[in-house]
Amino acid sequence: MPHFPPHLLVHLSIGNDIVHIPRIRRLLTTPNKRYIDPFVRRIFSPEEQPKVFQKVGILERGGLHRADSLAQWMAGRFAAKEAAIKAMSSRKLTWHDIIIHDDKRKPYITIRRPPWVPPSSVDGESVSTPAPASPAETDEIVAQLSISHDEEYATAVVLAIDDGDESQD
């Protein structure tokens, strides 16, 4: 890697993911609706869930013709969360740490930043776990997001600053 002045070093990380939209559509259109609620609660943060449940409710009242657009929308967000987890790989992110926002047709992500947790062992030797983070260490990171759809696939790319593992300088 070329040497740059320290003030120019930024840990940019990129993540991408692709989701097969028919997989999500099957979940939405199965006669047994018991899988939708756990899926939404597992993947989407409490801040996102009202919007998702509103869309699912419209689907249930409006018939299956809306399933394609909802499946596309949900698959894009699922891919975005996966991409964010990959971009922030030095963190132990959960689905709920990643919140997708719509801003005039240009979505973006905020990531609740849990502290970086080093591996429990290095070269076979045990490493102690750091103390829990203070609120200042768990603030939110804003990341760039691009979501695309084409027929049966949704894809997402996330670009974020991942300053978690500073030992990689």
Task: Report on this structure.
This protein is of the alpha+beta class. It is 31% helix and 25% strand. It is built from 4 helices and 7 strands. Helix 1 (21-29) crosses helix 4 (67-87). It is elongated, with a radius of gyration of 19 Å. 23% of the residues are buried. Residues 126-137 have low confidence and may be disordered.
Return residue spans where pLDDT drops below 50 for at least 5 consecutive residues.
Answer: 126-137
Overall form: elongated
Overall SS class: alpha+beta
* Amino- and carboxy-terminal Cα gap: 10 Å
How does the SSE layout of this entry go?
Layout: E1 12-20, H1 21-29, H2 36-43, H3 49-62, H4 67-87, E2 98-101, E3 108-112, E4 121-122, E5 125-126, E6 140-150, E7 153-161
Antiparallel strand pairs: 1-7, 2-3, 3-6, 4-5, 6-7
